[in-house]
Here is the input.
Amino acid sequence: MKHLFLYVCLAALSFSCNSDDDAPEPEPVNYEYTQEEKDAEIARLKNYIAEQGYSDVQETESGLHYSIEQQGDGLTPTMDDTVIAHFETTNMETDELLGVSNREENQYGQILIMNNLLEGVSEGFMLVNEGAIIRMFVPAYLAYGKRGNFFGDIDPETNMMFKMELNIVLKP
Here is the structure.
């Protein structure tokens, strides 16, 4: 019985070790955005903003679009800080609400480490002070890019909208 098991294992091993040397090497995926692709993302983003009727939307040099819905008067975060904020996340491609912080469970909001956030979100936070509410329209290249998110619920090249209420800035 031991010999039969050994032969079966060796046979399986020999078949599973076949070389695919003749198989063509897959082309590497380029996750970088060209300027034309960035321009296309911005055009879709601007179209969404216009269709939804948002006003007083400003644009940063990177392409982040934002509207400050309420001014704050506290500290302004930097990339070294941690913030506590309430949020509302929307997939701009589908208008699907993806997440909302729960005020009943935590009146101050979620703890977010600035250098772990999406590039566009951290940039948006650095435009406001504690107490502010900002709506960020984040082009895909400043969000999840050509990869999408890890969990698979946000497709590649998806523009995102974040409504963020910056409650507390924690300095290191």
User: Anything to note?
Assistant: The chain has three helices and seven strands. The domain at 37-170 is CATH 3.10.50.40 (Chitinase A; domain 3). Confidence is low (pLDDT under 50) at residues 8-12. The first helix runs from residue 2 to 16.
